[in-house]
């Protein structure tokens, strides 16, 4: 799959910033690919890009309109279809990370056909996977896990890749969601894989490698989330992580989209070790990544210090403080290979 650049990010009329996390992720990690954003009336998200209509975006050289949203069920609202058709008629390709294929919308399929444009459904795997085998394989792997959805698992893995490469370590980000795929150009949307093959897809994504090579696997969901724990567990078993980092958003009291209370960090550590030992008996937690976006600086830094002390682990905010201490811990714990 070759998605042409640069991008126009379509935000539709989503109700909040978090619903546009796909677009935000692309802007944060690949800003040079983003020309502007297209928002419908009532949109409550803003990526800080120039607002453009289709004609303006075409004039600026946009090649692909990216549907930069994530919502429950991964659906494309019918009232968005017209804008996607307009983009195709203007000569752009269209890419989405939602569950339903773009070609299943007759108007979109016809517009792509008559204009000779490409439709990219990055959330839908274009290959078949084997079932997971649980066989140990060479190389090192780290998985980011969460107390909830949308707490920073992708950002933590990407920040670790950047820091580790800067230090000369062998490290690759492994995308398991649509945003990560747009950022990295490779990966598998793990929540779109048939359940029997989730672990096998994770094994394919993080194959045997050099003994000192780190695969930094983007986590999904939470073992405690009633909607997505199944995906999380399959990813954990297939990734076979040697290390994991717990990601947490401290201002939440309930899990996203449901009424369940947020689990404690310690509960996540204990359950991840328990479940992860099935395919890697040596799994261990090596750090905490706290999303302090909604906290003032003194409060945020105080919280990081306190949580790190309580759990005896390096504790950072990947955006506010960087992930240096997390990499230090990996090098310390895996000295022969780090």
TrEMBL record:
Parts forming coiled coils: none
Stretches that traverse the bilayer: none
UniProt-listed SUPFAM superfamilies: P-loop containing nucleoside triphosphate hydrolases
InterPro entries, sorted: DgcN-like (IPR011669), DgcN-like_C (IPR035086), DgcN-like_N (IPR035402), P-loop_NTPase (IPR027417)
D-glutamate N-acetyltransferase-like C-terminal domain residues: 129-327
Highest taxon of source: Bacteria
Domain D-glutamate N-acetyltransferase-like N-terminal: from-to ranges: 41-125
The protein's name: EBNA-1 nuclear protein
Species: Myxococcus stipitatus (strain DSM 14675 / JCM 12634 / Mx s8)
């Amino acid at each position: 799959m070759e998605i042409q650049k640069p991008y126009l990010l379509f935000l539709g009329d989503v109700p909040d910033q978090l619903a546009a996390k796909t677009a935000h992720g692309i802007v944060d990690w690949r800003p040079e690919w983003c020309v502007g954003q297209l928002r419908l009336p009532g949109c409550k998200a803003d990526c800080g890009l120039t607002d453009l209509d289709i004609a303006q975006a075409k004039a600026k050289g946009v090649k692909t309109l990216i549907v930069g949203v994530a919502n429950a069920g991964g659906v494309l609202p019918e009232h968005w279809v017209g804008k996607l058709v307009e983009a195709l008629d203007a000569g752009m390709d269209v890419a989405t990370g939602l569950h339903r294929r773009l070609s299943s919308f007759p108007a979109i399929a016809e517009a792509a056909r008559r204009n000779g444009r490409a439709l990219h459904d990055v959330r839908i795997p274009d290959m078949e996977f084997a079932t997971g085998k649980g066989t140990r394989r060479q190389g090192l792997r780290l998985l980011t896990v969460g107390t909830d959805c949308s707490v920073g698992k992708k950002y933590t893995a990407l920040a670790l890749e950047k820091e580790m490469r800067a230090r000369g370590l062998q490290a690759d980000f492994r995308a398991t969601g649509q945003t990560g795929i747009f950022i990295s150009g490779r990966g598998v949307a793990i929540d779109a894989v048939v359940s029997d093959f989730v672990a096998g897809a994770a094994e394919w994504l993080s194959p045997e490698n050099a003994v000192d090579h780190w695969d930094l696997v983007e986590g999904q969901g939470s073992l405690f989330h009633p909607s997505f724990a199944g995906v999380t567990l399959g990813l954990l078993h297939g990734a076979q992580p040697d290390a994991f980092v717990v990601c947490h958003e401290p201002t939440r009291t309930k899990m996203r989209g449901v009424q369940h209370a947020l689990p404690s960090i310690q509960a996540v550590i204990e359950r991840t070790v328990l479940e992860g030992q099935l395919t890697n008996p040596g799994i261990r937690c090596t750090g905490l990544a706290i999303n302090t976006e909604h906290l003032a600086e003194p409060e945020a830094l105080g919280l990081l210090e306190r949580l790190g002390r309580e759990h005896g682990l390096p504790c950072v905010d990947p955006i506010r403080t960087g992930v240096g201490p997390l990499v230090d811990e990996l090098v310390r714990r895996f000295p022969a290979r780090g």
